[in-house]
Structures are given as C-alpha cells and as structure tokens.
Design goal:
heterotrimer, A alpha/beta (322), B alpha/beta (561), C alpha/beta (134), B: 561 residues, alpha/beta, TIM Barrel, five-stranded parallel β-sheet, 22 helices, 10 strands, 50% helix, globular, C: 134 residues, Rossmann fold, binds cobalamin, binds guanosine-5'-diphosphate, binds magnesium ion
C-alpha cells in the first residue's frame, strides 16, 4: 500500500483533504491510491441531497450531522457549489451553514466546485465519496444543486436520495429537470413554516410517478415529509425515514450496499469509462495542437468536421484512419 | 392640491430649457463633458440642471409646508435651530469602565450634555471578558462591562439624573439598560426621571452590524419587552434607535438605507401594536439614527424624505393621532467608511461636509468622526477637532440661521421626491415578502447591500469614483498621526475583577434570579423586572446572555457575500 | 479531469468582530479572479478556521480583522497551523492594523498585511504571485 492510502485508511485528515484535492484537480497519481483504497470502501451509508439553490439543503445537512453525531456516527459531507461561468472561480458557501461542526473530529466537511468539466464532477465526487468511505466515515452526505445532469448523477450514487423543495415552488417543481423526481427516495418540503406547504404537498403527490419502476421493487413508496431545517423541526423524522429506507434496501434489495449491486456497478463503471476516455483522448488531442489545427482547416474550408473528427479521434484510440 | 407654480410659467421654462440644452450640446460637441455619466456616491444619475419642470406638481401645503407641521419635510420642530442647536453627542468608550469614566467627566466638563457609550466587542456580543471567545478583545473597541460593578464605575460621579445617556448596544441592550436603571435606583434616583437611549435595534444587526446572539423572532420579542416596560415605567427613555447608519456603512446606497431603516421601524411598530400597546403611547419614544455620507444634496434629500415618509406611515398606516408619533427625530453620524488612512487630515474636511449635510437636513443630534477614524478609536485630540467642526458649523458658518435652507431648490425637492418614491417601492417589496422579519430570513436586505458594496468598491478600483489620496492625488509621504493603543494588560485585570466578584456575591441569589429570567423568556412575562433583580445581585452579562442563548438558541451568520 | 490545479483560498473572520464588508468584497474579488473561495462566516475562533482550512485543503487563509484583536488572533492562527504541520498554508491578513503592529505580525508568520485603501487588483495580484497551488 502507498503511504497515502495507508494514512487515509487510518483517518489522517490532512491526507484525505489533499487526496480529494488531487482527485478534483485530476492529478496523475490519484488512480493508484484509489485502487488501493477500493477494498476499504463499501461500509459508509451515502445520502444524496439535492434541490434548487436556497431551499435549505446546507442548513438541513448541518442539522442532520448533529443528529447523526448524537447517535455516535461519524459523518463526511461533500457540498458542491456552482463555478462561475464568467471567471471560473467560485464562492463555496455551504460550509458557512455547517461551520459549527468544524472542531468535531467525527465530522469532515469538504466543499467542491462544479468546475464544469465534462462529466468530471460525477467522477471526482464519486471518488471523494470513496475516500471518505475508506477513511471510515459511517455516513457520507452529498449536497448538490439539482440543476445539471452531473448533479443528478452524483446523487444517484447515494443509497438514499432526498429531494428538497420549499412551499410555493409549484412552478419551480415543474421546472425541476425531468428525471430528477425519479431519483428521489424521500421528498422533503423544507421551510414548512411558510405558507403554502399543504398545497405543495398535494402538488408533489400528483407529480411523483409512484409507478416508476424504481419503486416497484419491494414497493418503496417515497414519503413526502415536512421540515423546518433552521428550527431543527422534522429533521429527526427525516433520519427515521432514512433508517426505514435503509432497512427496506436491506430486506428487499439484497442489502443496503446497493452500490455493489450489478446495475450500480454497471452505471458507475460506464460513467468512469466515459470520463476516462474523454480525459485521455481530449488530453492527447488538445495538448498536441492538432485540435487547433483542425479548427483552422475547417474554417479555411480545407476539410469538413466529420473527416477532422475521425482524424483526431481514431489514432488517439489506436484505430488507424483508412 | 394646488401647485406652487402658475401653469403659464411652464411655457417659458420649457422653451428656455430646450434652448439652453441645445447651447450646451453645441459646447460639448467640440469638448465633451467632464464625465460620460454624472452620478452620486450611490450611483444615482444627476441631470445637468433642474428647473420648475421637475417639480411641476409641487404642492406646498401637502408636501413641503412649514417646519413642525405635517408631513414635517422641513423639520420636526417649528423652531429648529432658531431655538437651540442640535445636540453634539460624541460617541466614546475605551478600555476599562474607569478609563471611560474619566473621558466622560472630561466631556461633561467641556459642556456636553449627553453621553454616548461605546462598548467593547465581548460586551456587544454578550460575553464576559473571561470567555475563551473574548481573548484579545477586551476594551479594544469600547468599554468592557461584565457586571453591575463595571457599570457603577462607569457612571461614578456623573449626574445621571440630569444628563442623558445613549448606549450603543443591541443583543444585550435589555441587560445594559437594566444595569443603568439599577445604578440609578441604588443612588435613589427614580427610573421615571432618567433619560437616554438604548440602540436596541436588532433588525439592522442581522442586516448590517452583525452583533447578534439569538434568532430574529425572539430578539424582537425581547425588544418588545423593553418597549412595553419603557412605555409604562421609564417614560423618558428612547427604547429603540432605529438605525440606518450601519446599513449604509455596510455598503448600501442612500435609498436602501432609507427604505430598510423605515421598514425596520414599521416592523417594530407592528410588533408593539401586536403586544396590545397603543401606538401613541410608544411611537413618540422611537428615535432614528442615520448616516451622513459625502454626496451632499443626496444626503439632505434623504433626511427630508425620511421625515415625510415616516409621518405619513404613522398617520395613515398606523392611525397615530399624537403628532409626536409622526415625528421622525434622528441622530446622525458622519460616514466612517468615507474616511481614508491616506492623508488623514483630509478626513477633517470630509467630515465637515458631511456634518453640514446633516445640519441642513435637520438632525436632532450629531456625532462627527475623527481624523484618525481609519487607524483606531480616536485620541482625545482628534475627537476634539471633530467636536470643534460641529461648533464651527453651528456658530460661525451661519447655516443654522434659517430653517431648511435648501427647501424649494428644484434639485433638492426633486431628489427628495425621487428618494421617497424609490424607498416606498422597496418598502412595498418588503411588505409583499411578509415584512422585514421575513425579508431578513430570505437574506434580501443583506444581499442587496452586499451587491451595492461590491459595486462601489469596483467603481473606486476603476476610478469611476474618486477617493482623494487613494486613487487620485496620491502622495508617497507618510503623514504621522498619533494612534490610540489599549493596554493588553487590561484583559487580565478585568478577568481578576470577575473572579473576585464571583467569590464575593451571593451565588445562590444569582442562580435564583437567572432562573427567573429563564422562566420569563420561555413564557410571556416581561423580562425587565427579573433582569433588574439579577443585575442587582451581580449576575454577569454573559450569565444572563447564556440564559437567552439556552432558551432561544443562537443565531449564526448566514455568510451572505 | 485533466491536470487542472486551481487556487483555493479561505477568507476568514476571526474573533467577535462583525465588520464583514471588506471580507465579503475580498471573497468576491477572489472569485472573480478565478479562485475557489471558502468563506468562513463571522465569529470564528482560530481553531475553527484552521480546522476548516485543512479540511478544505486551501492554499491560503486570508484573515480579516477590524476590531483590534489581531495581535492575538493572527499569530494564534499561524501557531495552530504549525501544530498541525500545515504551515505550508500561506496566511495573509487585512483590516485595521496599525503600522506598528505589522512587523511583529510578519515575524509571527503572516506573510502580508493589506490595510485600507488597497486596490482589489493589487490584492488579487499578490495571491497570483505569492500563492502557488500545491
Ligand atoms: C464600516 C464600519 C462599520 C460598520 C460595519 C458594517 C459591516 N458589516 O462591515 C458598522 C457601522 C456596523 C460598524 C460597527 C462598529 N465599529 Co466600525 N467601522 C467601519 C469603518 C468606518 C469602515 C470599515 C469598512 O468596511 N471599510 C470598507 C472596507 C472595504 O474596507 P476594509 O474592511 O478595511 O478592507 C480593505 C483592507 O483593509 C483590506 N482587507 C480587509 N480585510 C482583508 C482580508 C484579506 C484577506 C485581504 C487580502 C485584505 C483585506 O482590503 C480591503 C480593500 O482595500 C471603520 C473605519 C474605517 N474607515 O476603516 C470602522 C471601525 C473598524 N469600527 C470600529 C468600531 C470600534 C466599531 C464598533 C465596535 C463600535 C461600537 N463600539 O459599537 C462596532 C462593532 C461592529 C461589529 N459587529 O464588529 C473601529 C475599530 C477600532 C480598532 N480596531 O481599534 C473603527 C476602526 C472606527 C474607529 N476608528 O473607531 N463599523
Ligand atoms: N424559513 C425557513 N428558512 C430556512 C429553513 N431552512 C433553511 N432556511 C434558510 O434558507 C436560507 C438558505 O439556506 P441554505 O441551507 O443555504 O440553502 P441551500 O442553498 O439549499 O443549501 C438560509 O437563510 C436558511 O437560514 C426553514 O426551514 N425555514
Ligand atoms: Mg447549500
């Protein structure tokens, strides 16, 4: 085992923090470490929380952490915030809501920026989950803004996925990316102290496709809960519902470690191959300057994009252009 | 409704104005205007000229009128500075209670009739000096108060039955007020005759100043307790100083300052009415606190608009009948954020201009910042120059000889109207959200201010806005100014004092009185009586604040950027 | 992925000081310069700041203090980083820092101090020149 992997399995905070950074930054050495860590993963229970900006996800995560700590469980949090499309920078604002857990050794909070690289977010977040898992965290909570496909994919990696909305978001719920409602195992109406909670509740009931094949299996009916995260109301109930879902996965789905189950593995490996391919091929093409050259050729009318694409991609994956 | 202008006037004015603009266009076609866009500090665009056209509908009786008459655009008292000048009230506080007491005596001997107390960070935040959170902070930003012992030292020998005392304190306002009342009662002074102000405005804390302790709803509950108690028991006390100063200093525009402050005032009024109080019993004890920034005319217009809006809100919306409820009385402080570390003597000039705007705007009292504002809390010398600045304005410049000297200026009346209108739009928006508490919870004012602050900073960086000595007329020379330093040893002395106190006092009594406060907080009993009892038993500030925190929970910074 | 080091910084408010106008402006300026910025929020102890900085693996901590307690808070932050073997995290600071306090702070390990009137561009430039992502 490498030094780094060993440190991580032993729970070394600095080493974990750095490895996640290296994963995020796509440093070459990380793959080896991740390989070594893989056997130590699979023990953490992963929660995904998604929803529009401002619905109270971070506040909720903060409260959930407190409750889990009372049960003596260790927690890792990955909070994903969007990168500014203008500057490439980001202000990672989730941590502020959770900062009171900073000094608790049983809690590790890490902010990530979406960075907008092809499928990279899903990949790096999944790897970061593995790192927390290997360091021995009992629960890992992943918070993402439920807008892009990437973010949805991220929460799909979770054992239990929680979709958060707020009252009076009727239209916004409609606007939630199609496909996102299907990934929800639990729906939570936060800010239930506000008017319109019951209306949102009935709207949601109508909208969630309970017949979706996801729910058929063992008949898990995704519950719709109400909460007031800032006032710590409904959070205990949420955790109880998570327990139920976990139990359900254990009893009806061959163990809650669904991440190991075939369809999960299939999805994750598929995604990994995709992003690895992009990384390797795109890397080769853009580094050599061939890409820019091809762009010029097309602009100058010397070639067409179809031919250029073949010329660039095929050699990169070891197929000869004929 | 009748316009001040004869409609026939406008034909000539319009024609003349058009001609004049043409002439200018011609002049500027060869050599363009000095700036592409002329705007105020708040980035409000300003026209080349203002004429009767801009105030076409000016209705003298209903909108402008006379000082001391509704809607008070020109001043709350009929006599204004023809009767007496504004109160020159300089904010002071440093180090230990004994240190500050010395400065207070000096100020009173110089003829100052009102004191204004600055507290240190631990006191402001509800911690005792011995808290681990307070390390390194004791006495740095004001006076350190841990218990009634310190408060007794602070007012030792000062005639608190004759002078009024203002205390800039918020989450712990109820407690410091209880201490002040206790000091008075122990000296045999009836609380019915003591006068002064506690800032006690928590809404603007969440919005701007950020000394907070418990969440907004219970914070307002405690404030309402003080309003209720004051109305019945301490009738000469101003129980809330509804503050725009901090909002502006946090980076808002002039209109945002105006709107958010008045929206806060509306929220407190609603709460007190909700408590079953009669509006005319408490509203006259509300006072306001504004900033006076660099853009001279915009500031004057802001003060005038503030009075007019508040009068109408109180009369029309809250159906107040006592004219004193319609009055917007206010204290002003010049804009600390406009002062610079570079070429610090320029700050005297800036402050003078800002003080002038406050006076032209009809302030009731004024603090002028010192030339060393950007370095540390002021030295005695620097504070004296700042006080002299007010005295020169009052007694040499002649501006106080007539009331509302800028009233009737096309420009100032237009600005007053514009600011009123824009502020009302913002207030409406807040009402639509469900009032200021709901707006704060949505981080609405916080976000608006952060955006304005960043916009302004970028404008300075881009030299769109000039700051003399910082981005223009920069010099390299180092101009030495004396900087006040607070003794680091004070912290230990203060901690020893707490330890001694905790050994000497009757701890059983303390425990019992803290429990009573807890019960009052959890129930509906007014907290003021139990507070006065607890401080008399020498419960410390933090011990009481810990009860608040336990019952109500702690508010944490939402970190809006 | 692709090798793509980004500068990560933390803007932190130590102590009871509530003056956050400057800190939040700095956080935005850093973001607009392309950095990833973690903002601590107000009222943090040096202990909380250091722990957060380590978990977030930032390259730099920027402390902002206007209420006069920098003489304790700034050196304490550096000291804690050393205790945690994280002294490779650069610490800079800004706010109301009297001139006479600057040399001892630098001696204590604060790499640079930015006082009022410093242009945002200069503040960003300093990071680009002095903070190298690991
Ligand atoms: C605005 C202000 C306020 C506002 C704050 C609003 C807010 N949310 O920020 C209000 C009115 C609420 C306020 C209140 C108080 N204030 Co005040 N305030 C100021 C003032 C006038 C300007 C500060 C400011 O925001 N400037 C604009 C910003 C953009 O500049 P900046 O923060 O300095 O940042 C620049 C640099 O310093 C640097 N920088 C700053 N931080 C960082 C961090 C990093 C990483 C980097 C790279 C750079 C950097 O970059 C920026 C751009 O150049 C100063 C005096 C002054 N003119 O500086 C007093 C001042 C800081 N306040 C002071 C005091 C005493 C108080 C109070 C304690 C008064 C009291 N006893 O009640 C309260 C406490 C408030 C609290 N919660 O802490 C004193 C502090 C004394 C001391 N240090 O010895 C000062 C110096 C005034 C004085 N001379 O008395 N205040
Ligand atoms: N009224 C109300 N506000 C809440 C509740 N939960 C969170 N908030 C507030 O909503 C805002 C956004 O919360 P945050 O957790 O940052 O949302 P996120 O963007 O989804 O992570 C914050 O100001 C919270 O205090 C709640 O239950 N009720
Ligand atoms: Mg969040």
């Amino acid at each position: 085992m490498t030094d780094v992997a060993e440190k991580i399995v032993n729970g070394d905070v600095r080493a974990v923090a750095r490895l996640i950074r290296d994963i995020d930054d796509g440093m070459p050495g990380v793959r080896q470490v991740l390989k070594e860590l893989y056997p130590s993963t699979g023990n953490a229970y992963i929660l995904g929380i998604t929803g529009a900006p401002g619905v109270g996800k971070s506040t909720l995560v903060d409260q959930m952490v407190s409750h889990l700590r009372k049960r003596d469980k260790t927690v890792g949090v990955l909070a994903v915030d969007p990168t500014s499309p203008f500057s490439g920078g980001a202000i990672l604002g989730d941590r502020v809501r959770m900062q009171r857990h900073s000094m608790d050794e049983g809690v590790f909070i890490r902010s990530l920026a979406t960075r907008g690289h092809f499928g990279g977010l899903t990949q790096s977040t999944r790897s970061a989950i593995d790192v927390f898992d290997a360091m021995g965290k009992d629960y890992i909570i992943v918070e993402t803004v439920g807008v892009g496909q990437d973010e949805v994919d991220v929460v799909k990696s979770a054992h239990t996925t929680i979709i958060t909305v707020i009252p009076g978001m009727g239209d916004d719920i409609q606007a939630i990316k199609a496909g996102i409602l299907e990934v929800g195992d639990i729906f939570l109406i936060n800010k239930a102290d506000r008017e319109g909670t019951d209306k949102t509740l009935s709207d949601l009931r109508l909208m969630i496709n309970m017949d979706h094949k996801k729910y058929e299996e063992g008949n898990w009916k995704p519950p719709i809960l109400k909460a007031q995260a800032v006032f710590d109301k409904g959070v205990k109930e949420l955790l109880e519902e998570i327990d139920k879902h976990r139990k359900h996965l254990t009893e009806h789905c061959g163990g809650w470690q669904v991440r190991r189950r075939e369809d999960k593995v299939r999805q994750e490996l598929g995604d990994m191959i995709k992003s690895r391919l992009i990384e390797e091929v795109l890397g080769k093409i853009t580094e050599t300057g061939d890409f820019d050259e091809a762009v010029n050729s097309i602009v100058e009318g010397k070639t067409d994009p179809y031919t250029a694409c073949d010329k660039l991609v095929l050699p990169a994956i070891g197929v000869s252009t004929g | 409704m009748s316009s001040v202008f004869d409609p026939k006037v406008f034909e000539d004015v319009e024609e003349g104005h058009k001609k004049w603009e043409k002439k200018l266009d011609k002049i500027f076609s060869s050599k363009p205007e000095r700036l592409e866009r002329f705007s105020t500090v708040s980035d409000r665009e300003i026209n080349r000229i203002y004429t009767p056209e801009d105030v076409r509908d000016a209705d003298f009786a209903n909108d402008i009128g006379f000082p001391g008459e509704y809607p008070f655009t020109r001043g709350v008292q009929p006599s204004m500075y023809r009767g007496r000048f504004w109160t020159m009230r300089m904010f002071a506080g440093l180090g230990s209670a004994k240190d500050t007491n010395k400065r207070f005596h000096l100020l009173v001997n110089q003829g100052q009739t009102g004191l204004s107390t600055a507290f240190d960070m631990p006191t402001l935040m509800g911690y005792d000096t011995d808290s681990p959170k307070a390390r390194g902070e004791c006495g740095k930003c004001g006076v350190a108060i841990d218990s009634l012992k310190d408060m007794e030292d602070l007012f030792e020998g000062l005639p608190i039955d004759r002078i009024t005392t203002s205390m800039t304190i918020n989450p712990a306002a109820s407690i410091l007020w209880a201490m002040y009342i206790a000091v008075a009662e122990k000296r045999g002074i009836d609380k019915k005759i003591i006068g002064g102000t506690i800032q006690n405005d928590m809404l603007k804390e969440f919005i701007a100043q950020k000394t907070f302790m418990c969440p907004p709803v219970p914070s307002v509950r405690i404030i309402t307790d003080t309003v209720e108690f004051g109305t019945k028991e301490v009738p000469r006390w101003n129980t809330i100083s509804i503050s725009g100063y901090h909002i502006r200093e946090a980076g808002s525009t002039a209109v945002q300052e105006l709107a958010f402050t008045l929206a806060d005032g509306i929220a407190y009024t609603q709460e007190a009415i909700g408590r079953g109080l009669n509006v005319d019993d408490f509203a006259p004890r509300f006072s306001f606190f504004f900033n006076s920034h660099l853009d001279f005319f915009e500031e004057v217009a802001k003060f005038r608009a503030a009075r007019r809006i508040w009068a109408r809100v109180m009369k029309e919306r809250f159906k107040a009948k006592d004219p004193r409820s319609w009055w917007l009385r206010f204290h002003t402080q010049t804009a600390g954020c406009s002062l610079t570390a570079q070429q610090p003597y320029n700050n005297v000039v800036r402050t003078a201009l800002q003080a002038l705007a406050a006076v032209m705007g009809g302030t009731q009292s004024l603090h002028t910042n010192s030339l060393d504002e950007v370095l540390a809390i002021p030295t005695e010398e620097a504070a004296t120059i700042a006080l002299r600045t007010q005295q020169i304005i009052a007694e040499e410049s002649g501006v106080a000889n007539t009331i509302d000297p800028l009233g009737g200026s096309y420009f100032v009346e237009t600005l007053t109207n514009q600011m009123e209108e824009e502020a009302l739009d913002i207030i409406q928006k807040i009402d639509d959200m469900g009032g200021m508490l709901a707006a704060i919870e949505r981080n609405y004012p916080q976000q608006e201010i952060a955006d304005s602050a960043y916009h302004y900073q970028r404008q300075i960086d881009e030299k769109e806005k000039t700051v003399v000595g910082v981005n223009k007329y920069v010099t390299d020379e180092d101009i030495p100014v004396e900087v006040l330093e607070i003794d680091e040893e004070l912290e230990n002395l203060q901690i020893e004092k707490i330890n001694r106190l905790k050994n000497e006092r009757d701890n059983k009594l303390v425990k019992e009185s803290l429990e009573k406060i807890g019960d009052a907080c959890a129930g509906t009993l007014n907290v003021m009586e139990p507070l006065i009892e607890a401080v008399k038993n020498y419960a410390t500030l933090q011990e009481i604040c810990d009860v608040y925190r336990q019952v109500y929970g702690e508010y944490r910074d939402p970190g809006i950027y | 992925m692709g090798n793509n080091r980004r500068v990560r910084v933390m803007v932190a408010k130590p102590g009871l000081d509530g003056h956050d106008r400057g800190a939040r402006i700095i956080a935005r300026a850093y973001r607009d310069a392309g950095f990833e910025v973690v903002y601590s929020g107000l009222h943090q102890t040096p202990e909380e700041i250091v722990e957060a900085a380590i978990q977030e693996d930032v390259d730099m901590i920027g402390l902002s203090s206007l209420a006069g307690a920098h003489k304790y808070l700034f050196p304490r932050t550096v000291e804690l980083l050393r205790e945690k073997s994280a002294e490779d995290i650069v610490v800079c600071g800004g706010g109301i820092i009297p001139e006479d306090d600057i040399p001892p702070l630098k001696e204590a390990g604060i790499k640079e101090i930015f006082t009022p009137g410093t242009a945002l561009d200069d503040i960003v430039k300093w990071v680009k020149e002095n903070v190298k992502p690991r």
